[in-house]
Design brief:
CATH topology of one domain: Serine Threonine Protein Phosphatase 5, Tetratricopeptide repeat
CATH class of one domain: Mainly Alpha
Strand content: under 5%
Number of helices: 18
Distance between the termini: 63 Å
Order of helices and strands: HHHHHHHHHHHHHHHHHH
Oligomer: single chain
Radius of gyration: 27 Å
């Protein structure tokens, strides 16, 4: 494989050097050649990968081993879902491999936002498969489609069926999310509790668990979950959502910590500087509040929300009026 790659790279570099001097027809011919050889390499890599995978499988004859590797699954692993769906649809296999192929096809359609086609693949497997693990993933796929279409009751039904066949962390989390957004917090809570016991480094799960505790009136438990999530969260939206929660409940230092975490991990933004400025102001930390407001104004001088905050504050801090003139 290394020799093939070296040979392909050498051909590519040679073509690249001469590219500017080629006619349009010659360029098309060379591109077609490169695409053809690259496709052959991909086919060979898939074949070798499948052989390696087969060696790893137990050969003692106990149980059923599911393994299906193809050009289509390779596209799927590369997250090229449109191409994966087109390729998987054309592939011809039999038995359990065909059911695995249909699972890959269904999830390729799902991630490519072809929801009706995804449903067809998953429904077929739910109706005909004799293998519980395949039926489990088909129900998971249906649950994901329903979630994408914002039909949460149907999503819950699918995830529940999947969970009855075999439980997994993803299904438990998805059930928690569906019940949460259906505002059935007392049912969502145990799913999140089970999930964080198995996946203790998921900050978003702790955030949702804290929200469930809060909705159930369990304020101490809510705050424990939220403070745990602060050190675990990575996404900008999740950290800002938690900052809003902290600010609302008067935990302004915690809100500041959330905004600083956003600054550490993501680009500077008016929303973050404004959030910092407002929470510093609520803590009566005038110096840091002014500095943060100045940073927000520098990024967006006419921001209406920043100006509104300054208008409110200048009644107590007249010097804020100077910032409004910037």
């Amino acid at each position: 494989m290394e020799n093939w790659m070296s040979s392909w790279n050498a051909i590519y570099k040679n073509i690249e050097k001469k590219w500017a001097f080629m006619s349009e027809k010659e360029q098309e011919q060379q591109l077609a050649y490169l695409e053809e050889t690259a496709g052959s390499l991909l086919d060979k890599w898939t074949e070798l990968d499948e052989k390696i995978h087969d060696l790893k499988q137990p050969k003692n004859g106990r149980g059923i081993t599911f393994s299906y590797f193809s050009k289509g699954t390779t596209f799927y692993d590369l997250e090229m879902f449109e191409q994966a769906a087109k390729t998987l649809k054309k592939e011809k296999v039999t038995g359990s491999n065909d059911e695995i192929r249909r699972l890959y096809l269904g999830f390729s359609y799902l991630f490519a936002n072809h929801f009706d086609l995804a449903k067809e693949s998953f429904l077929y497997l739910i109706q005909v498969s004799a293998y519980p693990i395949i039926t489990h993933f088909a129900h998971v796929g249906m649950g994901c489609v329903h979630t994408k279409e914002e039909r949460l009751d149907e999503a819950i039904a699918s995830f529940e069926k999947a969970n009855e066949l075999t439980s997994s962390n993803d299904v438990v989390y998805n059930l928690g999310i569906c019940y949460f957004f259906n505002k059935v917090f007392h049912i969502a809570k145990p799913y999140f509790q089970d999930y964080v016991e198995q996946v203790p480094d998921d900050g978003e799960a702790f955030f949702f668990l804290g929200c469930c505790h809060y909705e159930e009136g369990e304020l101490d438990e809510a705050w424990t979950a939220w403070t745990t999530s602060i050190s675990l969260l990575d996404s900008e939206e999740a950290l800002i959502a938690l900052a809003y929660v902290c600010e609302w409940h008067g935990y302004h230092q915690a809100a500041i910590h959330c905004y600083k975490r956003v600054q550490e991990k993501h680009v500077q933004s008016v929303r973050v500087w404004h959030g910092l400025a407002w929470n510093y102001a609520l803590l009566e930390d005038k110096i840091n509040a002014v500095n943060a407001f100045e940073a927000a104004i520098k990024l967006d001088p006419g921001n209406e929300k920043v100006e509104q905050s300054l208008n409110w504050l200048q009644e107590s801090w007249p010097e804020m009026s100077d910032l409004l003139k910037c």
